[in-house]
Amino acid sequence: xxxxxxxxxxxxxxxxxxxGDYEYALSDVGTTIEHRxxxxxxxxxxxxSTTKMRHWFERLYRLFxxxxxxxxxxxxxxGPWDTTxxxxxxxxxxxxxxxxxxxxxxxxxxxxxxxxxxxHAYLDTQVLIDTLDRMAVNGIEEAKAPPITG
Length: 150
Fold this sequence. Notes:
Radius of gyration: 15 Å
CATH class: Alpha Beta
Strand order of the largest sheet: 2-1-6-5-4-3
Order of helices and strands: HHEEHEEEEH
Helix content: 25-40%
Structural class: alpha+beta
Shape: globular
Strand content: 35-45%
């Protein structure tokens, strides 16, 4: 039953993210967080506070304003004291430069007592970096900005 509740919440989070509502996702973040996004680029690095995550989401949606997720699978394991959720997805967007973007990946989410304590995103970073590079060439400076970390 617990796993079903967690899965339903994760589905809601990804549906809301597909509408640009990252505040809904942030409402589940615990007092300690590790948000890690692989790669050396403007969206890469690690954040350890909801404030830094909010700034990261703001940048994400400026660069990819109509980002949408298609969930393929969700696996939940563990008890309420230490839960792991793995979400396999494909995301699509028309980035700020107007060219289509499609990528696939996995989020590994750790929860303790209903609060998210870690989110690690694994995706094809080369596809993302190529898109960010193209945006930068087209004058979108934020695509080459330093990562938001801390």
